[in-house]
Amino acid sequence: YDDLLDEDPELEAIRERRIREMREAQAKQAENIARGHGQYRTITQDEFLPECTGGSEYIAVHFFHNEFERCKILDHHLKIIAPLHTTCKFVR
After folding, report:
1. Average pLDDT of the chain to the nearest whole number
2. β-pairing, 58-61 with 40-41?
3. Are 55 and 87 in contact (CB under 8 A)?
4. Other Cβ atoms closer than 10 A to 85
C-alpha cells in the first residue's frame, strides 16, 4: 500500500506544491524581518516617511508622549505582540 502512495503522481504534485508554498512563506518572513518587522522600534521624525512608505504592507504607528501613562501601557502591549506578528512593522 505504501508503494502505491509513493508512486502516485498526483500526490507528488501536491507535495511539491506544498514545499514550494512553504519555501515562499519562509522567504517572505525572512524578508519582513530584514525590513524591521517583528520588533517594536522608536523612530525619529525624519525617519517617519521612509519607514512608513518603504514597502511594508502593514505598519502600526504609535504616536506617543513620554509623560502619558496610557502610552506606557500601550508600549508594553505592543512590545509583546510585535514579535508575534512579523507581517506588520511596529514603530513609535
Report:
1. 88
2. unpaired
3. no
4. 14
